[in-house]
Specification:
Chain lengths: 410, 153, 410, 153
């Protein structure tokens, strides 16, 4: 745990000021900060071995390719995939999810089929399925929430039927801060021979993820949310499904043989990685995973729990506050969405910003959920392991001051 | 650590207008209308107006959800342009947008904006400029058509 | 020009050794090196303002968004686009080209239509069109080469007809080192109401590019080939075509409004930038363009020409060498493809690597061109402005030593 | 600045075999065949062989283009496995692949590889290991089916 306490040195941004106040960075669900050590790995690579990967017999290309593939291995281990050939590098969770919908989804979904998602999904895990369903005259069904802000597993059992071909569920919500029972939903999906897609954008880096235990068919997440570089993402897929999956994009590196009239594809995973990949980014992603491993994902989980245990009851005690999602801290990730009675979330965020507290206000790319909750936006504070109790206190104070400021007028 | 600077932006009249916005709803059988959307925060507003034969704005209204800045700005915009000619309205829009961007402008021009000039400090809150300019951009769009789309980006 | 001479300090990698020999980096067509100043801009951003872009009312998000959009403006100016709303950020040239094929291409191509490309295209500008043509039962036609290694403009006039809907041509070849008359082809395409797509991956950063003068409808290129970060790319498109173009990928940032059943799209260009973009990469890309501007694209062009003028005749004079593409240095970019009689390109590249000379051996993602030339691979040396005459001499020496080594045996 | 170290890799026998590869072409009516492809350089080779009732390799041939390492390796592989049982051939493939990766192996094992053991220095040229292992991987594929696909990746 000591490692965690000194770890803020790895993130110099945490020492900056915002509007003359010390930065309190509580927007980790949007993007997490990146450690110096990860930046150094990329810098070192760029200054000593930058070279395009694959299809090369020179020393530099060989070093770059080896490092790139080493990151694939680190990802495999991070999520306990059976093989590193099950790991496809993408530009982010959004691309990972689109890739499934546009390739395998497009191939298997037919008129009358059903795709089941949940009402708490991020747009990146809604619109690809929604548009696929529209194109194919299939139907898109939503698993609803219980009153306690959790997913309604009984509803999942009703919505997933033998007509269901794909079930796509977020592992952890970017609005409600709830962790979904994806293992159970996976079982239900498989009982109906449906493919289980898990959006892990808010899960990986916060608690241990084991794609085999979850029995997920696909698992998607982003590098920039796990202390890695932007422009990197991952799609894990079961080999047997990747074998059926047509290529997503065409170009260099993903081919076996090209003639004027046709082309054949390289082996998996290269088949799905057309063009020069974000190789420096992927190497940085590997460094970010090593950073994660060094701290220990379980330590991160404990630290985040501690912060939520400290701050959530305090928030709930402030008059005029609505908290969305589960009310018990034990059921919460570091993501906490709230509203202040009668004050618009953007006005709240501007007030918080005056106090150095950086949160996100808006629909968080989850408009159907907002509609379902009867609101248009929330204020979201999202904690990561490098946040402190002082950050939590600053948030509490910001809420109170903001209420005072706007209520004074009324 | 306090919110004093915030008073530059949230003046009483703004919070008043935000809590009791004027000219809300829809004009029946409008001659012009438009939907606008602020991609930086998600606010959506719908505007309707009626132009008479002389291109004078005889009625104008808005509806939709948003923060206090965008609600107040919409409310003040509709109040100041009601009764103005299209040409005058477009001129006011230009003055407002210049003011919001921190460009220089004469006191005389500013006064033409009526209450809306209290938003002059918006330029000190760059993340909120679009909240203030959204309804003026909507005015342009409603009066001139979509060719002015780029302005709010 | 002095700026150029001291500029190697910006690229510490150029001081490293390969197999105990000083590195002679001649693989710039695959990926160019990245200056320290560009790395510093990204590092500075990551350490002081890292934050997700768009949809944010906090200070950090606002800084990040402003810098991100400033890069868009720099790209606009670099290629003289009419508006920064014509610039879409992608992950690379490959994605840019796929984007057109999968969206507008998919929308407009019908059975019996024709798509015209050239035989010297990179796979990234072949396979998307080839697969689109196959899917739509359209035909894919190739503009052939003249005997002098240049594109046959007369053939272009025959191949492009009123049935042609799309013409896609590389601005400069990544194998032959030839610059194509894309302005003229653009005219021909437009006479037949076809859309002109230009692959600028080997052009931008080497000579001035003006998309308006070329009258290109679309123009694609990659950041990692113009001294920028990996995972960044650009698609320029004419506004009137972008307006007709359906979205490419679905997710966050690209929507106006989402309900359970449907979605509407954000304005151009956000409509085409789904998900969290590679924002740090894009900010680095902006820095790379500023670096380019500082040196002056014309100075780069002059320097590259000088090197080619020096080295090409020397190469041609070595017995047993075949040079592909134009024979005159004046018609050449820094890209020079050769073969050594009786020695396989991979064996050549291994020998060169022993001598510190990093080139690329293979089909260079241009298999149809290889087939056309009656070969399977070439050795490609590609010069950039930071290369020197000493690098050119090292290449000449490497060729000679390699010939000696392998010929000794016979 | 010279090419002395290259002699570790390009021994006379390798260049000889590359210039005059043995067992080229195609077996007629083969019992097994496979296409392999080296994604790191683009080499493509096609292999055919005939197994008799006892699973002995009675004939084997290859065709396709490639560098001198892959040509020599294919030529030497076909020579050493001809007449061997499937089991023996797979064992040789394992020895070769271990050798190429720099794993330890007994002198006795190495000698089973015949001429192919001259490729032992390939491990000092990591970028070329696949050129050497390609035809052995093809052998596995041809004899065992595609389930061994991962090996060469
Ligand atoms: C739950 C969830 N899914 C998907 C995404 C999309 O990730 P990205 O924007 O990195 O592609 C996000 C992040 O915003 C998210 O929170
Ligand atoms: C002419 C040409 N087009 C397209 C590409 C593809 O670029 P990228 O791999 O960066 O997507 C390349 C680079 O390899 C190229 O040389």
């Amino acid at each position: 745990m000591n490692k965690i306490n000194n770890i803020r040195d790895e993130f110099p941004i945490l020492n900056r000021k915002i509007n003359n106040e010390p930065l309190v960075y509580l927007d980790n669900a949007a993007t997490s900060q990146i450690p110096i050590s990860v930046q150094n790995v990329m810098r070192e690579f760029e200054q000593t071995a930058r070279s395009n990967v694959h299809r090369s017999v020179d020393t530099l290309g060989n070093i770059a390719t080896a490092k790139y593939e080493e990151s694939r291995n680190l990802v495999k281990e991070l999520i306990n995939a059976p093989s590193q050939n099950d790991i496809i590098f993408t530009s982010g969770a959004t691309e990972s999810l689109n890739m499934i919908a546009f390739t395998l989804g497009n191939k298997i979904i037919e008129k009358g089929d059903e795709i089941v998602i949940t009402i708490m999904e991020h747009h990146s895990n809604i619109i690809p399925w929604q548009q696929l369903a529209r194109k194919k005259q299939a139907s898109l069904k939503y698993i609803e929430l219980c009153d306690n802000g959790e997913l309604d597993l009984a509803d999942a059992r009703t919505k997933i039927t033998d007509k269901t071909k794909i079930v796509a569920v977020t592992h952890a919500s970017n609005v409600l801060g709830v962790i979904n029972p994806v293992g159970e939903i996976s079982q239900i999906a498989h009982q109906h021979d449906a493919i289980m897609v898990v959006d892990g954008a808010q899960a990986v880096g916060h608690f241990p993820v084991d794609v085999q235990k979850l029995d997920a068919d696909f698992y998607a997440f982003s590098g920039h949310k796990i202390f890695g570089p932007t422009g990197t993402g991952i799609l894990y897929g079961k080999q047997k499904l990747l074998k059926k999956m047509p290529p997503y994009r065409f170009g260099g590196e993903m081919i076996a043989h090209v003639t004027r009239a046709n082309a054949t594809w390289a082996q998996i995973p290269q088949k799905f990685e057309a063009g020069t990949p974000n190789y420096t980014g992927v190497i940085g992603l590997g460094a970010a995973i090593e950073f994660l491993n060094q701290i220990g994902i379980k330590n991160i989980q404990v630290k985040e729990k501690e912060l939520v245990k400290y701050v959530l009851p305090k928030i709930e005690n402030i008059p005029g506050i609505t908290v969305y999602g589960p009310k018990e801290w034990a059921k919460h990730t570091g993501v906490i969405s709230i509203n202040l009675a009668g004050i618009h979330p953007h006005d709240v965020a501007t007030a918080f910003d005056e106090l150095g507290v950086e949160v996100r206000a808006g629909h968080h790319c989850a408009e159907p959920l907002m509609t379902d909750l009867g609101i248009t936006a929330t204020v979201r504070a999202s904690f990561d392991f490098y946040n402190t109790k002082a950050d939590a206190d600053a948030l509490i104070n910001a809420i109170k001051q903001t209420e005072d400021f706007f209520n004074e007028f009324r | 650590m306090n919110l004093d600077r915030l008073k530059l932006l949230y003046k009483d009249i703004i919070l008043e207008q935000a809590n009791n916005p004027q000219n809300t709803g829809r004009i029946r059988n409008p001659t012009n209308e438009t939907n606008v959307y602020n991609p930086s925060c998600g606010d959506k507003l719908h505007f309707t107006c009626t132009l008479d034969k002389n291109k004078k704005i005889t009625a104008i209204a808005f509806e939709g959800e948003g923060c206090s800045i965008s609600q107040a700005s919409a409310s003040m915009m509709t109040q100041v342009v009601k009764g103005k000619s299209t040409k005058q309205a477009i001129e006011l829009s230009k003055i407002f947008s210049d003011m919001a961007m921190g460009k220089k402008h004469s006191q005389e021009d500013l006064e033409k904006l009526g209450d809306a000039q209290v938003l002059i400090n918006i330029m000190q809150f760059p993340a909120r400029i679009k909240c203030a300019t959204l309804s003026w951009w909507a005015l342009d769009r409603m009066l001139l058509g979509e060719k002015r789309d780029k302005k709010n980006d």
